[in-house]
Every structure is written in C-alpha cells, then in structure tokens.
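Researcher: Structure for this, please.
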Amino acid sequence: MEQALLDAKSREDWPAYFATLARNRLYFEVLREKAEARFLNTYSVFGHDPRVPGGKVWAVYTEGMLPAPEPHRVFDWREFAWFTKGWTPDFPEMMVINPGSPCEAFLPAAPPHSHVWAQYAKHTDGPSDEPALRTLRVGGPLRGPVAHGLACGAHLIVHHGRPWNALAYHGHGYRYERRMLRNSWGVTSRPEWQAQQRALLATEGAKPVWEFALGLRRTIAQEVGGHVETGHWCETAARVLRLRAGGETFLTPDGVTTTTPMPAAETETRIQGVQHLIGRITRYEARMRADGLLGDGQYVTSVDAWDLGRASCMARWGMSTRYGTLPEAEAAVVEAGYHAARRYESWQGFSVGFILGRCLHFDNDRFGSWYEDMVTVHRILMSDPGSPWVNIPFR
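Model: Predicted structure, token format:
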C-alpha cells in the first residue's frame, strides 16, 4: 500500500493517491485513558509540524507506517471518508499522511477543501477483511527465528488480512484489540495475558484426549510400518484404556505410587468418547485429502499446532493491547517456532495440525466456515510466491 502511495505521489496522480487511502485503514493516535474507559468518541491526539501555519496537524498513518507500539501511545482507525465527517472546528485544519516518510502528503482536513479529496472515498471500496497475504518489506523480519515464529501464526493473521510479519502489531486498533482479548480469551490484564501466553506455549489449550488419540496412532503406525486401519485404531484405544482403568503404577520421588482403579461404566464411557473422536478425526482427514491439504496415506500427527499458532498470535496481541512488551513478544514467537519445528516436519504438516485442532474445538463436524476459512488460508500460504511458508525453511 505504501508503495502505491509513493508511486501515485511521484506521478502527482492524486486521484490514485486518494483512492489508495480509501481502500485502507487509516490510523491516528488517541488518548489511552479515554480508550480504556470505552468511550464512544475517539479523543484524537494532535501533533505539531512547523511546516504548517499554526503548527497544529492531525497525523494519520497507513498500517505499514505506524510507529512501533509504545506503552502510552495507542491508535484507533477509521475509513478515509470519516475524516471529513468527524472533523469539528477545534480539530487541526491540516492532515498529514505518514509524516516524515517518502509517501507523506498534506491534506486540508477542514471543509470545504476536504470535499475535493473526500469525493474519492464515495467511489472506492473501503478496507477489506478478506484473507490476504500481506508482508512488511520494511520494519518486519523476513528471515530468521523471529520470522519463522511469526509465520507459525499466519493462519489467523492472513485470514484477517493483516501483515504476517508485523511483530510491532497494532491490529485493528487499541480499543478493538482489547475488546477482542476480553471477549474471546477473558484476558483483561497483563498477568492474565502472561498466563495465557505461557499456557499456549506449553500446549495446554488443546484437550489431552486429542493428543492421546493421535499419539496412539503414531505408535501403531511405527509398529505396523505404515497405514493404520480405523478399526484397529479404535480397538487398540479400547484395550489401552481398559488396561489403564485397572490402575497404573508409577515411580515418583516419594516412591512407588499406584492409581485407583476406574469403575467399569466410566471406563466404557471414556472408550466411547475416544472412539467417537477417532471417527471425527478420520472424517476431517478424509475431507482434507479431498481438498488437497493431505496427500494419499498422509495423516495429522499432532494438534499442538493449534496452540503454537495461537501462541504466535497472542504475542502480537500482547503488543496491540500493551499488555506485553516487544522483548516478550519476540521471545514468545521464537519459542513457538522452536516447538513447532520439534513437533512437525513441514509447514504442510503444521498447517493441517492447526486446522484439525481448530475444527475439533469449534466446527462440530459441520465443515463450515471454521474449516473452509482455514482451507483458503492454507492454499494461499502454501502456494503464493511471497508466502513465508514458501520462503522460510520449516526446520
């Protein structure tokens, strides 16, 4: 986007410049304490530029030119047309787009002059949340451990059309990002964010029974040297669970410990649950093969990717909400990438693990948007020449 702005400015093609702005989110600084109080107004923070009469300006940024997140500076965003509708007489009369950058431009914010550029917003589609692979060419890592860890979170980032390699992440703006973490994760403070980040990196979010079932199949596959029949998988699961139900003996620092035997009825209920899960897994894998995500004879080895991919995103969400710091975010994405490389052999294997975990958690065998959205993202990331999965080795 910034390159398009620079090209248009270099040609003095202002209609193209305005149309580019109209297709993208425009960010501006707001008062943090007002945003945290959930006020509906934006409470913009204005800047100073000696090149403007009176010096007062409204600094507005495109996503790729946003300043790195700072604890006491936060941003909101609006569409291009809003800046004429939202203007009041106490606002600056001049807006500066991407101040200090090669694609910088000064625009009159006050009517009637603003109507000249505002008209372009009426004839241009606004910002889109459609899946898109976007890359920061300046200010975002393209190689190395940080880029690898960020690429592990690409499912959700690309799904929402955000730059996959933005570690200094602003997302949809400070207020939206805080609301998202509160509503979707129950995170409302720095300690809660830290706890959630640790849990995801430890892969504690996925249900242990999912990994039990998949781990059992891996063991069987090693024993039989290849393909595992679903019936054999189910029978083995029943046998293992019945053996465990009789009580297990462990050697602990305190000595030998034996668990209490499980009632037969509870054991059979567990067996039915695991066998039902095995059926769900095989149906999702069959659909993935039909959609080209898995090859013949391939299967999902683990769903740890579901947690590790979200851990990579959680690091960025810590930045966008100011619950975390840049060093913490960097360490978290590197750790997520490290664990991913230990558990999987390829981006393709990691991706299907993430998709299966997401579907087991949300989709309920419907093969709806929880599945379809990730198929779209998987295809983009596995095929686009600019994709990190194409350009960054998984191991």
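Researcher: Any notable elements?
Model: The chain is about 50% helix and 10% strand. The first strand starts at residue 26 and ends at 30.
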